[in-house]
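Can't attach files on this board, so I'm pasting raw text. These are the components:
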Amino acid sequence: MLYKKKFPLVIFLIPGLILIFLFLYWPFIENIKNSFYDITNFVKMPGKEWTFIGVENYKKLLTDSKLRIAFANSIKMMGLAVVFQVGIALGLAIFVSWLRRGENFFRTIYFFPIVISATAIGLIFKLFYNYSGGMLNQFLEVIGKDPVNWLAPGRAFTMIAIPIIWSYVGFYFVILLTGLNAIPEELYEAAKVDGCSKVKQVLYVTLPMMRGVFCTCIILAVTGALKVFDLPWVIAPKGAPQGRTHFLGTLMYEQTFTIGNVDYGSAIGFVIVIFGLLVSLAVNELLKPDANL
Amino acid sequence: MKKKAKWLALFLTIVLALSFVACSSKNGSKSDNSRNTGVTPADKKNPVTLTTVSMFGGTDPNAPNYQAIISQFMKDYSYITIEDDSQVSDQDWKTRIAADFAVGNEPDVIQYFIDANASDVLAADKFVTIDEIRAEYPDYAKDTLDSALKAAANPDGIERAVPTTGYWEGLYCNKDLFKKYGLELPTTWDNLLQAIATFKENNIIPIAVSLNNVPHYWVEALILSAAGSEGYTQVPETVPQDWCTGLAMIKTLRDMEAFPKDTDTIDNDFAGELFKSKRAAMKLDGSWFLSSIPDKQNTVITAVPVMPGGKAKEGEIIGGISSGFYITKKAWEDPDKRDAAVKFVMANTNKEGVTKYWNGSGQAAVSADPIKDMTPLAISGFEYSNKASVTLLPIDSRISQEAYNTLIAGIVDISTGAKTPEDLLKEVLDINAKQ
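---
Top answer:
Structure tokens for the assembled complex are below.
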């Protein structure tokens, strides 16, 4: 009888609605408001009002070279996430699906980095990359080579992108493997009867059947790349070296919490949300995950 | 199946009911016991949980002393539990503390800055003044020197914090490395340049510093060196040329490869390790760094030499009192916590507590007895601070946090030439003017 009475459903939905409004939408609206004021302290001085500065922060965004770097890095990261995170995960998932046994073993092994906190992974890679006494330079020393500054401005982005990609491959691997297992075995058998090689089976059976899962993974990878924060912050905080490894999230954090420029940080936060929405819409439009092609 | 489920439900109900009875009879027996022993609830101290925050956390050399005082305190007052959330002070931590005060999540006792660094927190008006506390507890901060209490007054002149120690900033040198390469200690600018060139040739990092994390000491020292005490202590409205000269020296030093190759990415702790492990010859740091140095025989402290054309005079050093223990109104207005908070601050700031923190480095806020068997390094620090003719508070005690943070965030760009000192200082002074 529950499905006929809608009122109890509404009762159950309201607490969630209140929580999401209180902890997401309200702060978001406050954040937009803050970006139009000059916030000089975290604490509002008694009797002192914030000065309204209009779109000053947004004008500053247009000329901020660090923001340009952060945008470029975030977009590069999206591309890398799609190509390498989803790509490597797809390759691994296909190989594992061909195995007669041991699927669970590989599933566990590849998924493992997901359960390690990003901070711990960041710390591990920081120790790998250290110029003085880091693991990579110790290897180089053993083979008689000069140490390398792995986080030098020219290569820091790549060195930070590696652990970001590595740590999430397992996540997409599990999703894709689940999708692969859902493909009926009869299709492969029919393809075999028609004389399809393994490669052709992947191209003409696996990939078309996986389209929906694929699109989901790409959307997750693209939006996930926008949220990158913890790993780069641990390996090279504040966009180090020389602001070259700033992502939108790290730049917003630095401005707000390290420098204390709350209003400018709020403006960056607002831009991140708008950019995220636009990217999600564009990806949806491009991939059309629900379309029946 | 249905019958089984019914019996199981009945069984669980009985178990639950019995456990309730057992619990209530336990409470009852407890109150009976207290009646039998003649102890009334009024005679007992209510259990108190005190939330505390300090900068003596993580890798801070005073962290073990602070923890030892907490442990002893909880032994002495078994009814008080300390829930401590101490961390090493950095900008992120300061911001978190300010946010805690803004939303009413402040601790009961906090060891925090006393100068402009505390402006956010002071603006919340959540500290009790020493006068108010002394009206009820006349012995509060009785061991602390009056001069130290005055020096720890907030920018509005009101005394709220009880300090433990003062500090100084000095150039730590690995004397054995200087000796090994036949170098003079960097008491003059020429000696400093000579040392940088020689160490670089011998694969020793001349100066351990993290420009991305803690360039503060070099910023302060070079501006003081260029501007002298008068120019250094002003709060300028227009960009002072001397400050630009001082900051420009960071680029000169970087171009000479005086800093580690990865100075843009390492943190201050790692820079400290480079110095302690003798991979670096010099490190500019505060008096708190002294106790963490393992080689106390071969490390000495000198002043940063005055740069050519610099206006600083010999004996002008950076230091002073920068922090102290505060009691918040939240604790003061709670009858149970008030006494506990006062006791806790006194345990940290009495002669015994301060002597632990001081241990011969920096300046004690009480009249501490001389430390016996001081190490050569401690003697060097002691002599360095005693020789000082003027001790000047750093720039961050005079300008707004956002302005100072902007200055620090721009130092890497200054060192690479991506930004000129003039442009950075203009930005900094504009921000400061808004406050």
